[in-house]
Structure formats: structure tokens, C-alpha cells
Amino acid sequence: MSTSYFYLINLGCRFCILNRLWKLLPPGIVALPDGSSSSEITVLVECIRLLHAELSGLLRLFSLGYGPVILIYFTFAFIHALVDIFLIIILDNSSVKLGILSFVFYIQYIMSTLSILWIASWIIKKKKKIISYLRLTRISELPTETKLQVKIFMNQISAYEPNELTAFGFFNLNLNLFISILVLMITGIATLVQMKEYWFMIRLNNLMTPQFNKLE
């Protein structure tokens, strides 16, 4: 996971640099008498556009490469948590006790999940920030070459829009995912509590409790 953090933070910082570079352009990216010429502004806009496309492509490669890994990690960690909760709720508390390693696992899982989701949300925010700059631009007042670059830039952003950070296309990596996981966890716990008095749960409890007593 540390490699993923480093890679994502690196991409996010590069998007920040592009946003700062865009702010250096004249207001409305219109050439001023004592400033850069229209051709220089056009070249700078084109460079920003190409760099933005390159970073978006790298972000897509990360999503394709690490997406399955993140999907498997989240899935198995979620299943592991549900199994532990199942054992605690369905079986007697005296029979099943969580060790310190389990608590360490849950803390590590929560922190790593929050970290990667926060970083992913931060990157997407920085990536989309330049859209607000483009929308503030009055295209009708721009020279033909600059106007063409701005239009290509907007179409380029629209083309890369679906290629967000995803876990192999199953879900987007952002802070909303943590809320979804939390809701699923609460729903699962509530379902287990409601099913605790069912006859097959009672039978399962009677079958499994002696096995855990032997382990103790």
C-alpha cells in the first residue's frame, strides 16, 4: 500500500502544479499589451493540456493495474470483519474473544482504507479543479488558436472523465466508498442481531460453541 500512496500523492502534486501554472496565465487568457503574446499563451495552454492528458493517462493506468488488488483487499477485509462480528454476535461472548492482533488488524484496515480513499478523493478534486478555470474563460474573446486549444482541452477532460480511480470498475475510490462500507457493516450487524434467535442460528451456536471451548 505504501507504493500506492507514494504514486497517488505524486500524481496529485503534479495536478496541483498544473493548476498553479494555469493561474499564471493572464486573466481570461487574453494577451495583455505588456505581457505575453497570444502565441506564447497558446503554447502554454497546449503544454498544460498535454501534461494534463499525460497525468490522466497515468491515473488510468494506476486504476487498471492496482484496481484488482484494491478490490480483493477491500473484499477480503470486509468479509473477515463480518466473520469476526458473526462469531461475536451469534456465539456467546465467553466462547469467542478477540485478541489484540484482531484489534490491530481492524485499526490498520480502517486507517489504510481511509488513507487511500482520502488521497484518491484529493487527486480527483485537483484533477477537476482546472475545469472551473476553463469554464470561467470567455472563449468568444480568444484568438482562434487559443480558442481551439481551450475547446480541445474541454473535450479532452470530458473524454477522461469516466476514467476515474476505480477498483476494477466495481466502485469509485473516494470518501463516499467508506460511508458505503460503514452502512453495509451496520446493515450486516443489524441483520445478524435479528437472526440470532432463529432456530438454525441457535443450532449453529450449539454446534460451534463446544469447538471453541476445546480451543480454549
TrEMBL record:
The keyword Acyltransferase does not apply. One of its GO terms (biological process) is sensory perception of taste. Keywords: Cell membrane, Membrane, Transmembrane, Transmembrane helix. One of its GO terms (cellular component) is plasma membrane. It is a multi-pass membrane protein. Signal peptide: none annotated. The chain crosses the membrane at residues 70-91, 103-124, 173-193. It comes from the Eukaryota. It is found in: Cell membrane. Pfam families: 7tm_7. The keyword Cell membrane applies. Its main location: membrane. InterPro entries: 7TM_chemorcpt. This is Gustatory receptor. It comes from Macrosiphum euphorbiae.
